[in-house]
TrEMBL record:
Keywords from the named record: Cell cycle, Cell division, Cell membrane, Cell projection, Cytoplasm, Cytoskeleton, GTP-binding, Membrane, Mitosis, Nucleotide-binding
GO molecular function: GTP binding
UniProt-listed CDD domains: CDC_Septin
Name listed for the protein in its UniProt record: Septin 2
Location in the cell: Cell projection, Cilium membrane; Cleavage furrow; Cytoplasm, Cytoskeleton, Spindle; Midbody
PANTHER family: SEPTIN
Stretches of the chain forming a coiled coil according to its record: none
Organism: Cyclopterus lumpus
């Protein structure tokens, strides 16, 4: 066995030429390797009336067939059909990067004559995924939590109207605080470019008028290159995206393209001059991490804080069950705006918590705050929290 200096001299441990080099600049590479090995998860929900090409667009976006055994119901079956939730999961791998994609479809949405409560099933599904994640996050084994929270919702708008329908307004107002909403104009090949721009402006005006919060792309950082800044500006100006989907390969100008063939010409799916399909795909791929962060930091935190304010969690039967005093105190302490050194050593001795939550001892940066039914918390920010059991 060679001594360590000989191993280094043979190049197995290269010595950088830059003086003062330590090596922690390699930390991003470690995070990259770990993320690639673990893979990524993303959940996309598509909502819209039947016949707007939702399934075709999703298959076109990810170059896969998510619905190989789908049976399209007839007109008679649609009359009595209610809104259903169909989640399809597929593992996609590209250049060694694995993506666990879950697409949640909502067949039956908007098909009934009275569609007043047709989106209650969709809202319940979104809340159930938040509830399941909260339950798994609060459990003992948090190492392998499957994230099925809805990170993005493509809402398909019909191109045949003159803006948003009342159902569109009600649905987006009902979910805009729960999920990232991206409005999409379906079947844009039925519109001219001038009609498409006019419809986009009308939809944006109605969204602002009704106070609907759609997903806004984050601004490019000042240190980003000019190409990325220009790309972000174009994507922001293209919302809502007017798209065309197709899974057919046709010949146009001597090459095979995915598009639709008409007597008057060819509509290419991946042509920026014809529709916004490529812009929608670029937005989804380049801002997928931001969509997940907004879901975690905004929508899920709002749900979690609302659940803690109500003092319970929903059971599988829909009843509100009380949370243990120990769990409530830990969750409330974790949300306090304390300096980092005080938050790192946060712990709770749950063995000393009884039904009257007496003698609950909280370790806070080496200091102990005794909280019981007779005494008030010594920390000033803890005095406003009152546990109820």
């Amino acid at each position: 066995m060679l001594p360590l200096p000989n191993i280094i001299s043979k190049g197995q441990f290269p010595n950088p030429e830059t003086p003062g080099y330590v090596g922690f600049a390699n930390l991003p590479n470690q995070v990259h390797r770990k993320s690639v090995k673990k893979g990524f998860e993303f959940t996309l929900m598509v909502v819209g009336e039947s016949g707007l090409g939702k399934s075709t667009l999703i298959n076109s976006l990810f170059l896969t067939d998510l619905y190989p055994e789908r049976v399209i119901p007839g007109a008679a079956e649609k009359i009595e059909r209610t809104v259903q939730i169909e989640a399809s999961t597929v593992e996609i791998e590209e250049r060694g990067v694995k993506l666990r994609l879950t697409v949640v479809d909502t067949p039956g949405y908007g098909d009934a004559i009275n569609s007043q409560d047709c989106f209650s099933t969709i809202i319940s599904y979104i809340d159930d995924q938040f509830e399941r994640y909260l339950h798994d996050e609060s459990g003992l084994n948090r190492r392998h939590i499957v994230d099925n929270r809805v990170h993005c919702c493509f809402y398909f708008i019909s191109p045949l109207g003159h803006g948003l329908k009342p159902l569109d307004v009600q649905f987006m107002k009902a979910i805009h605080n729960k999920v990232n909403v991206v409005p999409v104009i379906a079947k844009a090949d039925t519109l001219t470019l001038r009609e498409s721009e006019r419809l986009k402006r009308r939809i944006l005006d109605e969204i602002d008028e009704h106070g609907i919060k759609i997903y806004h792309l984050p601004d490019a950082e000042s240190d980003e290159d000019e190409d990325f800044k220009e790309q972000t500006r174009i994507l922001k100006a293209s919302i809502p995206f007017a798209v065309v989907g197709s899974n057919q390969q046709i010949e146009a100008k001597g090459k095979k393209v995915r598009g639709r063939l008409y007597p008057w010409g060819v509509v290419e799916v991946e042509n920026l001059e014809h529709n916004d399909f490529l812009k929608l795909r670029i937005m989804l791929i380049t801002h997928m991490q931001d969509l997940q962060e907004v879901t975690q930091d905004l929508h899920y935190e709002n749900f979690r804080s609302d659940r803690l304010k109500r003092g319970g969690r929903l059971s599988s039967h829909g009843y509100i069950l009380p949370l243990s005093p120990a769990y409530v105190l830990v969750c409330q302490l974790s949300s306090l705006h304390l300096p980092p050194p005080q938050r790192t050593n946060l712990c709770l001795d749950t063995h000393r918590v009884t039904k009257q939550h007496r003698n609950a001892t909280v370790g806070h940066n080496g200091r102990h705050i005794c909280y019981s039914s007779e005494t008030e918390p010594k920390h000033p920010e803890l005095r406003r929290w009152k546990l109820s059991y």
